[in-house]
Amino acid sequence: MADLGLGAQGRAGGAAMMGPAAGSEEAVRAGQERVSVLISADSIAQKVGELGELIARDHPGKPIHLLGVLKGSFIFMADLARAIPASVSCDFLRVASYQGSKSTGEVRFDMDLTEVITGKVVILVEDIIDTGATMDALLRILRARGPASLSVCSLLHKPDRTKVRVPIDYLGFTIPNKFVVGYGLDYDGRHRNLPYIGVVEGLAE
């Protein structure tokens, strides 16, 4: 899970729904851990559809270029791309900001973009926005490449961990300070394939 920024709640944001109330899934045994549902698959699908419509409405008649931050955003970005009723292109990047176990806030590209973004309407797509330090640095780097516009779309937001405020233009859900998995997010490489967002029981953030 990338340590990529957090900031003010986006316009499409909403409160997360806890446990079984989020949908039909109960707490399940997922491999070596027990995972309880935080946000149901149905709730995610509805929210992604709303975000896609909002992005298209904000940029009428313009092609949208999505930039996914790997690895955690890949499922969210695939669904989001299909939910945008406009011409959509995609690219990916992968960054690191850690020295030992702590984030430095300085971005190192493990995988850079394959296309130039100059003059494009760019939406930076992230799975979860956390402390804000890395996202802040990443936005500064991407703005210097001359996009026509640069917006942030994040599925999740943890306001309790804010260190640096960054703008979140399109937000799925605000969540508590819990370690979450599923829908692209992992714990030690596991649980990315879960169709919902869940909390690994007994694991502290």
Residue share in β-strands: 35-45%
CATH topology: Rossmann fold
Describe the sheet with the most strands: 7 strands, mixed
Task: Specify the helix fraction band.
Answer: 10-25%
Radius of gyration: 16 Å
Q: Please, what is the average pLDDT? A: 82
Q: Numbering strands along the chain, what is their spatial order in the largest sheet?
A: 2-11-9-8-5-6-7
CATH class equals Alpha Beta
Description:
- It is a single chain.
- By secondary structure, the chain is of the alpha/beta class.
- It has a single domain, classed as Rossmann fold.
- Helices cover 19% and strands 37% of the residues.
- The protein has three helices and 13 strands; from the N terminus they run ββββαβαβββαβββββ.
- The chain has helices spanning 41-58, 74-83, 133-143, and strands at residues 6-8, 14-15, 28-30, 33-39, 64-69, 88-99, 102-111, 121-129, 149-157, 165-167, 170-174, 180-181, 197-200.
- The strands form three sheets. Strands 2-11-9-8-5-6-7 form a seven-stranded mixed beta sheet, with helices on both faces. The protein has a four-stranded antiparallel beta sheet with strand order 3-4-13-12.
- The longest helix is centred in the N-terminal third of the chain and has 18 residues, at 41-58.
- The protein is globular and about 45 Å long.
- Mean pLDDT is 82; it is low at 1-9, 15-26 and 98-103.
Defining traits:
Rossmann fold; 3 helices; globular; four-stranded antiparallel β-sheet; seven-stranded mixed β-sheet; alpha/beta; 205 residues; 19% helix
